[in-house]
Amino acid sequence: MHYSTFTTSDNCPLAFQSSLPLQLPPTPSTPSTPNNSRTCILLLHGFSGSSAYFTRNTAPLSAHHWLVTPDMRGHGRSGHNPSRGGFHVARLAADLRELLAHLRQQTGDNKIKFIPVGCSIGAAVVWTYVELFGDRDFTGYVFADQAPLQDRAALGLGGVWDGGLAHRGCFDEASMLAAQRGWVEASERARTHIGLVRECLGYRVSPREGDGVGEEEARRDEEFFAGISAGCDGVWLARLLADHTRYDHREACEGITRPVLVMAGRRSGCFSLEGMEETVRRVRKGGNENAEMVVFESGHWLFYEEPERFNRELLRFVERCTR
């Protein structure tokens, strides 16, 4: 993978990894598109994560297609310009749109088939993109372990959304404030980072015989993911969390006209299967029957716990969307 950067319209540097080296716009003597770049898979990480999350996926996927893994604003190697705000899911969606424009400009190819894989908040970014800009830029969509609304809908606006559907740990004003304190207060941050890992790995949430993960490997996993979270600005993340948890994407899902695949972790510490299946229900309600959900036996980070199946299901879906 090759690291690269570009600068957004609000002067924020954003980093991303690409399985192919990008080139300047073509000249008459150079091809307009790098080998295998006609289809581009975009792996979008979750809250407090980075492109490094996909360490078990990049090599197998890039053997088949052009792969781009961004560090979203405020995450990984990307900047976040805190004095100018930017801690909104809508700003992250605008960043994604600018990334697509940058990739088209760098390759000189305006016909790239982009397929976003939104994991956790990455899914929210894609739903917001569809709401703001439509779904013409994408050939298909994958949403991994994220329900279209985190908070419980106390008034039932948009339909009943209770504790069996909302996020299990951050679902109202009180729980959101408690989560914000964990990211902001120095004495709580390390505990918050470890707590996130234990909420997102299925073998921690609901251990089973045969998981095959020893304490040493579990410790390495905790250090890996907690280290990535520790690299983020906790105050900025806390403000992003307040925006993210209240965003209701249910009706936006009804505007998706391209194929949809939802990947859900049976042992997710974040969402129930029923909550995640709402995306499929809403897409079909909008008249698009080309939507399905597959259930993994792992947790929220199913791409890490079951990488072989994740890669296989994703490649199968991409092939179906692009043939």
UniProtKB/TrEMBL annotation:
Domain of life where this protein originates: Eukaryota
Xref: Pfam families: Abhydrolase_1
Gene3D superfamilies xrefs: alpha/beta hydrolase
All copies of domain AB hydrolase-1, residue ranges: 41-307
SUPFAM superfamilies: alpha/beta-Hydrolases
Tagged with keyword Hydrolase: yes
InterPro entries in the cross-refs: AB_hydrolase_1 (IPR000073), AB_hydrolase_fold (IPR029058), AB_hydrolase_sf (IPR050266)
Name of this protein: Alpha/Beta hydrolase protein
Organism from which the protein derives: Parachaetomium inaequale
